[in-house]
């Protein structure tokens, strides 16, 4: 295998291993907040953390950062677990920040006793107004010097829900003139009289991200805590909090940052994805148009294609926009190797082979996947009446049209050479059927001279009496512009593509009758399709994953 050079995150770990860390100390975590479904951006973080776990044979925890009961739900926890598993990763421990609420509280009490935290009874507006600016120091709260005993009493009352909702917060006492605004006495706890999906009504105070995250890493003895770049200024505070509760000789987790990955023509933010769901622009979090892991799965993307995509774009230090065509490329690459080929006609035009016997049905042999010799072959019925694509026939066309035109021949895939004789039209001049003749000796694989005859163009088809109608959902990009969030004066929903879903009825070969949800196929000459969860034997439903080629480029 080709040896790839180390990315900067791996370099940090290698440096640490060369400077005193033991391999056994390495531990990572993936820390989603259960306030929505995971999206393709999270896949980068998952592949980074779990990839490091595999590379260094180190444990990786799945940690739910569940400190905000207002937005979090058990259903999101379950969806997240399913998605990480489906991506192919195993976590060492399933952890919850909420499991540490008592420990965090006890530590907060310690901080108060040390004179490092105090209860502030001002409004959040007043606190914000005193923060100062990056170049001017902030103003101290009038409660900053509140006596320790009073702080302890108030904090306990807050915890027990005995104080009004917004009356007090607990703040760390750090430095109101720090050049880092986050160090100017950040809030550690706020009061919320909200039930939590795991701790119920046990708590009336909830820790803020900065207080909970580093301490959770410390409790779990995570060695390297990777987060996205916007947390870089938080690192100083992360370290301050961890140092406050740790003792000589203990392993302190390290926060390091990498760039968020953005995908073009969509949004990767749970908050924005939630709006798409709530405002019924999509049907659900797992709508196949969503950039969620569950949406991509339902659409037909394989776990391997998502992992490959994440690894190909890699880990960076600067935010950038990845074109969605790279994700589609990754899907094609994997699906080409793995999917059976079948025939389906999306826009049917009926052909009648006038010299083929009326009551005859032949079973023809078709290879399942030329990329996979193990995949074998299947039988497909052929008869006098077949469907081809409307786009595959023209009465007249130039030399470059290697499909069917009057007086010319094409091969029907796995079947015979046919020649178009006559186009039958309705009163409006629309072609409703085409009469053809076939060369009886030209059957594919029969070994005859005629079967080896070269004709330009091979068409896919299905036999009319054997075809099964199927609902096919054709997806297009969810947004019409590369970055729907780039226009500050507009709402990202202004750029929703009104044609992101087109539903048609296709005619598919009968072998597909028993296809089950999530089964994937290449519809020959068209694209990759996946059976939707709404599908049944009596009402087949397929999602188009991607077209065969990147039609957006040319
Ligand atoms: P969102 O804005 O979508 O809610 P988030 O960062 O708040 O994203 P978390 O649930 O906190 O979501 O994310 C879990 C982990 O995934 C974090 O470490 C976060 O940094 C990482 N992550 C989230 N979005 C991306 C992205 N677009 N690219 C890379 N990593 C991401
Ligand atoms: Mg977050
Ligand atoms: Mg978020």
Automatic annotation (TrEMBL):
<dbReference type="GO" id="GO:0004819">
    <property type="term" value="F:glutamine-tRNA ligase activity"/>
</dbReference>
<dbReference type="InterPro" id="IPR001412">
    <property type="entry name" value="aa-tRNA-synth_I_CS"/>
</dbReference>
<keyword id="KW-0436">Ligase</keyword>
<feature type="compositionally biased region" description="Polar residues">
    <location>
        <begin position="132"/>
        <end position="142"/>
    </location>
</feature>
<keyword id="KW-0067">ATP-binding</keyword>
<dbReference type="GO" id="GO:0005829">
    <property type="term" value="C:cytosol"/>
</dbReference>
<dbReference type="InterPro" id="IPR049437">
    <property type="entry name" value="tRNA-synt_1c_C2"/>
</dbReference>
<feature type="region of interest" description="Disordered">
    <location>
        <begin position="125"/>
        <end position="145"/>
    </location>
</feature>
<dbReference type="InterPro" id="IPR050132">
    <property type="entry name" value="Gln/Glu-tRNA_Ligase"/>
</dbReference>
<dbReference type="GO" id="GO:0005524">
    <property type="term" value="F:ATP binding"/>
</dbReference>
<keyword id="KW-0030">Aminoacyl-tRNA synthetase</keyword>
<dbReference type="InterPro" id="IPR020059">
    <property type="entry name" value="Glu/Gln-tRNA-synth_Ib_codon-bd"/>
</dbReference>
<dbReference type="GO" id="GO:0006425">
    <property type="term" value="P:glutaminyl-tRNA aminoacylation"/>
</dbReference>
<dbReference type="InterPro" id="IPR000924">
    <property type="entry name" value="Glu/Gln-tRNA-synth"/>
</dbReference>
<feature type="domain" description="tRNA synthetases class I (E and Q) anti-codon binding">
    <location>
        <begin position="458"/>
        <end position="532"/>
    </location>
</feature>
<dbReference type="InterPro" id="IPR020056">
    <property type="entry name" value="Rbsml_bL25/Gln-tRNA_synth_N"/>
</dbReference>
<feature type="domain" description="Glutamyl/glutaminyl-tRNA synthetase class Ib catalytic">
    <location>
        <begin position="26"/>
        <end position="336"/>
    </location>
</feature>
<dbReference type="Pfam" id="PF00749">
    <property type="entry name" value="tRNA-synt_1c"/>
</dbReference>
<dbReference type="InterPro" id="IPR020058">
    <property type="entry name" value="Glu/Gln-tRNA-synth_Ib_cat-dom"/>
</dbReference>
<dbReference type="InterPro" id="IPR004514">
    <property type="entry name" value="Gln-tRNA-synth"/>
</dbReference>
<keyword id="KW-0648">Protein biosynthesis</keyword>
<dbReference type="InterPro" id="IPR011035">
    <property type="entry name" value="Ribosomal_bL25/Gln-tRNA_synth"/>
</dbReference>
<keyword id="KW-0547">Nucleotide-binding</keyword>
<keyword id="KW-0963">Cytoplasm</keyword>
<dbReference type="InterPro" id="IPR014729">
    <property type="entry name" value="Rossmann-like_a/b/a_fold"/>
</dbReference>
<dbReference type="Pfam" id="PF20974">
    <property type="entry name" value="tRNA-synt_1c_C2"/>
</dbReference>
<comment type="similarity">
    <text>Belongs to the class-I aminoacyl-tRNA synthetase family.</text>
</comment>
<dbReference type="Pfam" id="PF03950">
    <property type="entry name" value="tRNA-synt_1c_C"/>
</dbReference>
<feature type="domain" description="Glutamyl/glutaminyl-tRNA synthetase class Ib anti-codon binding">
    <location>
        <begin position="340"/>
        <end position="439"/>
    </location>
</feature>
<protein>
    <recommendedName>
        <fullName>Glutamine--tRNA ligase</fullName>
        <ecNumber>6.1.1.18</ecNumber>
    </recommendedName>
</protein>
């Amino acid at each position: 295998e080709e040896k790839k050079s180390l990315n900067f995150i791996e370099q940090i770990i290698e440096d640490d291993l060369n400077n005193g860390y033991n391999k056994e100390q390495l531990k990572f975590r993936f820390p989603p907040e259960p306030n929505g479904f995971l999206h393709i951006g999270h896949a980068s973080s998952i592949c980074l953390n779990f990839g490091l776990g595999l590379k260094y044979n180190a444990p990786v925890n799945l940690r739910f950062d569940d400190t905000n009961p207002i937005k979090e739900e058990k259903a999101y926890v379950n969806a997240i677990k399913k998605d990480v598993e489906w991506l192919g990763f195993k976590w060492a421990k399933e952890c919850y920040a909420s499991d540490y609420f008592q420990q965090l509280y006890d530590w907060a009490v310690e901080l108060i006793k040390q004179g490092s935290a105090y209860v502030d009874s001002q409004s959040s507006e007043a606190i914000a107004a005193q923060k100062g600016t990056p170049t001017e120091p902030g103003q101290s709260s009038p409660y900053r010097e509140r006596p320790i005993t009073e702080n302890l009493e108030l904090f306990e009352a807050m915890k027990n829900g005995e104080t009004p909702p917004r009356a007090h917060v607990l703040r760390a006492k750090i430095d109101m003139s720090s050049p880092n605004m986050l160090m100017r006495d950040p809030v550690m706890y706020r009061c919320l009289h909200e039930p939590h999906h795991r701790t119920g009504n046990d708590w009336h105070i909830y820790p803020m991200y900065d207080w909970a995250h580093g301490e959770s890493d410390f409790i779990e003895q995570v060695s390297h805590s990777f987060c996205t770049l916007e947390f870089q200024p938080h690192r100083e505070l992360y370290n301050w909090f961890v140092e406050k509760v740790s003792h000589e000789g203990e392993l302190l987790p390290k926060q390091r940052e990498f760039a968020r990955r953005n995908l073009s023509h969509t949004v990767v933010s749970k908050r924005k994805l939630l709006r798409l769901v709530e405002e019924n622009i999509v049907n659900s979090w797992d709508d196949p148009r969503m950039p969620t892991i569950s949406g991509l799965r339902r659409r037909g993307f394989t776990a391997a294609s998502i992992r490959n995509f994440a690894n190909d774009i890699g880990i960076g230090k600067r935010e950038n926009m990845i074109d969605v065509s790279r994700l589609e490329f990754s899907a094609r690459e994997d699906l080409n190797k793995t999917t059976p080929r079948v025939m389906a006609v999306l826009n049917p035009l009926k052909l009648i082979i006038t010299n083929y016997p009326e009551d005859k049905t032949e079973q023809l042999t078709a290879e399942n996947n030329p990329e996979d010799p193990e995949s074998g072959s299947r039988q497909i019925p052929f008869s006098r009446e077949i469907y081809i694509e409307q786009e595959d026939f023209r009465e007249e066309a130039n030399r470059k049209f290697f499909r069917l035109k009057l007086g010319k021949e094409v091969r029907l895939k796995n079947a015979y050479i046919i020649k178009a004789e006559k186009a039958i039209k309705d009163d409006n001049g629309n072609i409703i059927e085409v009469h053809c003749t076939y060369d009886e000796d030209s059957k594919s694989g029969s070994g005859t001279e005629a079967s080896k005859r070269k004709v330009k163009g091979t068409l896919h088809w299905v036999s009319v009496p054997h075809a099964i109608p199927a609902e096919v959902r054709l997806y297009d990009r969810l947004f019409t512009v590369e970055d729907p969030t780039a226009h500050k004066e507009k709402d990202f929903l202004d750029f929703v593509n009104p044609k992101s879903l087109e539903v048609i009825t296709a005619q598919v070969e009968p072998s597909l009758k028993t296809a089950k949800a999530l089964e994937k196929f290449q519809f020959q000459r068209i694209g990759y399709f996946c059976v939707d969860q709404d599908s049944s034997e009596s009402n087949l439903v397929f999602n188009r994953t991607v077209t065969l080629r990147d039609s957006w480029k040319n």
